[in-house]
Amino acid sequence: MIFKFPKLTPRRAVALSILGFVIFAGAAYAADTGTAPAYVPGGGSGIALPNLSLSFGNGGKPADTVAVLRILMMLTVLTLAPAILIMMTSFTRIVVVLSFLRQALGTQQMPPNQLIVGLSLFLSFFVMAPAFKEISTNAIEPYMSEKIDQKTAFDKAEKPLREFMFNQTREKDLELFLSLSKEVKPQTREDVPTYVLIPSFVVSELKTAFQIGFMIYLPFLVIDMVVASVLMAMGMMMLPPTAIALPFKLLLFVLVDGWDLVVGSLVKSFG
């Protein structure tokens, strides 16, 4: 048996609106006056909620203050974790190249943004695995075991990331930000401040990603030009070339095993 809803006429719509308002007002009144029944497992007349309190006071020991400051610093690091992941790892190059690939194919929203970002994230974990392992071994584990202090742990955690960024940063971009910062010309890599290295690395990653994107665009651009020329020669002016070229682009991408080529080239570009 199929149940059919009655036709919603203006009169019925007004009646349903009034009924909903009355129900909402009654519930609000019952909650305000404390007459609303509530179910509590095991009996009772109200909803049992846990107590939550936040208080500040003078620490009895200096160690208590240090522990609180450490917690605050850890929370600050967690809030900055997305920016660290995006700006100081391989994520920037990978997500830009994959976005260029989708635009070159002309598939609009396929793959969707969530898939591109997710794939870029896991590829970044794959590329940065040696650096993350070194950070865990030399910085996080000794710090959690209280073998080193916080400053030493930070310096040891920063070292693998700086080494990775130096290997991917062009000297021209590094010189640009050194000149803009008006810092004394460093003699070694250790003398380069991190706040100068990070923007230099990001600019270099964007430049490399655009170069790879240009190389990806070329074969698909040739297909677009060929299809457009054939349609003009046949007099089909009103037929959009992109609609005809899309199947040929997908066929070419599948035949050459495009995902393996693009992902493999991206990972190898960080070697």
Describe the structure concisely.
By secondary structure, the protein is mainly alpha-helical. The chain has helices at 10-33, 62-87, 91-105, 113-127, 129-144, 150-168, 171-181, 194-233, 241-255, 258-268. The chain is built from 10 helices and no strands.
Name its key features:
271 residues; mainly alpha; 71% helix; elongated; disordered N terminus
Descriptive notes:
The chain is mainly α and 271 residues long. Helix content is 71%, strand content 0%. It contains ten helices and no strands. The longest helix has 40 residues, at 194-233. It is elongated and about 85 Å long.
Question: Unreliable runs, pLDDT <50, ≥5 residues?
Answer: 1-6, 21-40
The main pleated sheet reads as: none
State the secondary-structure class. mainly alpha
Rounded radius of gyration (Å): 30 Å
H/E element order: HHHHHHHHHH
- SS element count, helices: 10
Sequence-ordered SSE layout with sheet pairings:
Blueprint: H1 10-33, H2 62-87, H3 91-105, H4 113-127, H5 129-144, H6 150-168, H7 171-181, H8 194-233, H9 241-255, H10 258-268
